[in-house]
Amino acid sequence: MTTRRDALSLGADRAAAERAHRRGTPLVSPPAEAVAHVAPAAGVDLVDLVAEEAGLRMADAMAVPRRPRPAGRLEVVPDLPADDPQEEEGVENPDHLAELLVEAVEFVRRRLGGDYAVDEFGFDPELTERVLLRLLRPVYQRWFRVELRGADRIPSDRGALLVGNHSGTLAWDALMTQVAVHDSTGGRFLRLLGADLVFATPVVGDVARRMGATLAASSDAERLLSSGELVGVWPEGFKGIGKNYRDRYRLQRFGRGGFVSAAIRTRVPIVPVSIVGAEEIHPMLADVRPLARLTGAPYWPVTPTWPWLGPLGLVPLPSKWLIEFGEPVPTDQLDPSAAEDPMVVFEITDRVREVIQQTLYALLVQRRSVFLG
Amino acid sequence: MLVTGVSRYLGGKVATALAAHPTAPTVIGTDVVPPHAPVGGARFVRADIRSPAIARLLSEETVDTVVHMNVIATPRSVGGRVPMKEINVIGTMQLLAAMQKVPRVRRLVVKSTSGVYGAGPGDPAIFTEDTAAATPPRTGWAKDCLEVEGYVRGFTRRRPDVAVVLLRFASIVGPGLETPLSRAFALPLVPGLLGHDGRLQFVEEEDAVQAMVAATLGAAGGDGRGVGDGRGARVTGAVNVAGDGVLTTSQAAAMAGRPVLGLPEQLASSASRWLTRLGAAELTFEDLRLLGYGRVLDTTRCREEMGFVPTLTTREAFAAFVQAQRLRGLRPFVDLVAEEVGKAVVDTVGARR
């Protein structure tokens, strides 16, 4: 342990010296006790982050490691004593900062110890609320500048099925709707239904479950709806999200209406969700079928930026988004046995689809520019 | 009544618990080898369920209830996969064939596993007893159980007068029980699937024993664990048994103080074979998929129709297992670092003011 501590304090000294050198200020030597425990050997310069963003962001940065890691990785902790006094000006309220830091350390400790709860679907409310939604919110507010309409139509205290149009090559629309629902209902979570391919994909499937998604199967959907959850479904599936740019805002076939049956059986209203803006984030110019077959993907897109710019091509274009929640379609006047009646199911499916399509056209007319809104 | 597989850990416990039940049934335990530990008030008769001797035993001893515990999960304990499969599948076939000719038999209770549902990305999050597996198990114990269940269903058709109960247990953990999964959590690195974090459920061994008792006699007895109220005696068909709640693989590994070693799924099959060959673990491909994709059981039937509620939740059962096995791993170190870092943060921020 002694040798390890020595190595660590050496590293911390070096990092501190580098920082001091960069800023052209005299080196303040760190208290030995703190150096022994606090350990960014390579100098993960979170101190600057604290100074710049004072507070909240810090908690995010600290909270990102969410899998148990070898203890060596715990070292993402700023060596506060080593920084120079100037930086204090950036921190307005040291008490607040201390609280946040302590809270963040406690959060990481609990996460590393497995001391948190997930539900039967793998939903991790704490991680979603404190980390994932916080990471998505800047994208929602600054990048896509999402404008909401009719958010008061989302039931505040009972189950409902939210049905939306799917587009954009990558499912940003699902993530943004989740932020919209959470922030406009006072913290309700939207439980998304995804294809099995989502859950077969490493990391993606895991994060999806942690955010509350589950398989688009009637048993899971009905279980969630009857326990009063808000469930989100994109019935177009891959046909919608992976369609060519020239077909933008043209709704694809709405599956087999399984979502309507689930709503009828559980007697919850269907809320149509129309999303404008997601079509332009990755305009798909072509679909390379052979590559899709080779990789097992449902489509292999070519966009103005992908694959030409490599990983940069994964950055969505900053289109201006409008999301409108439509008038809920009630299903509680129907007998639950109507779920087995194809005529009733098709009729409601068509009605929901028509509402979304008309709303999309109306929203498109209102939008003057794709990127400026 | 007859209990098979009493020389094995759970079988012995079930025989003991049945014999200790207030209704005081006569319990005969069988196995190919004599039990290591005494099986309480049960009488041991040495008989191999793979031989016709079992038929004689059934008719001579006036057996009306059979509790089939002899479905083995650990190949190493019986000398490999081949004898294991023989005991599990052929043994069950012989036992059922013998039972079919004994008119006095009224009830059959079989210990099965929720492994028969498989685990995969195409499965719903929660399995009821009627959920069809999207990817049925192809190897090991879970496949044996699937075949056993098939033969049991066949028996149900041929002998509709016999009440048959199949208990599908979530992963059983306990201080004295060794299963492929419990061994995996004692390894320095817990194997898993890369980028996947399965939802696991556990049931504590004593709860599992009492669930068997409740399904056999209708009420849990012994030390009063479990809330069996007599309805269990009327239940038939498959019943899921699991502790409430869910732990993910990474949570469970963290509780045992171990990091998860994520294996790419393409390598999972050969990795499971290598781990077994090296003697490090007995994980099948199916077990790895469970650790990766997870499986949660709907226990409504168990609670409402059988009237049995496990006393320990999934988390409590696993915590008890971790404590009993003294699995600490990196936990003390993680706690120490967290505590010291917290202190250092408070000190330094306080000092700067």
Layout of SSEs?
The complex is a heterodimer of chains A (373) and B (353).
Chain A: H1 2-23, H2 32-37, H3 46-53, H4 56-63, H5 94-112, H6 125-143, E1 147-149, E2 160-164, H7 172-184, E3 190-194, H8 196-200, H9 204-210, E4 214-215, H10 218-226, E5 230-233, H11 238-241, H12 258-266, E6 270-276, E7 286-287, H13 289-295, E8 301-302, E9 322-325, H14 342-366
Parallel strand pairs in A: 1-9, 2-5, 2-6, 3-4, 3-5
Antiparallel strand pairs in A: 6-9, 7-8
Helix pairs in contact in A: 3-4, 4-5, 6-7, 10-12
Chain B: E1 2-4, H1 9-19, E2 28-31, E3 43-46, H2 53-60, E4 65-68, H3 81-100, E5 107-113, E6 126-127, H4 140-158, E7 163-169, E8 171-173, H5 180-184, E9 190-193, E10 199-200, E11 202-204, H6 205-217, E12 237-241, E13 247-248, H7 249-255, E14 260-263, H8 265-277, H9 285-293, E15 296-297, H10 300-305, H11 314-324, H12 331-352
Parallel strand pairs in B: 1-2, 1-4, 2-3, 4-5, 5-7, 6-15, 7-12, 8-11, 9-14
Antiparallel strand pairs in B: 10-13
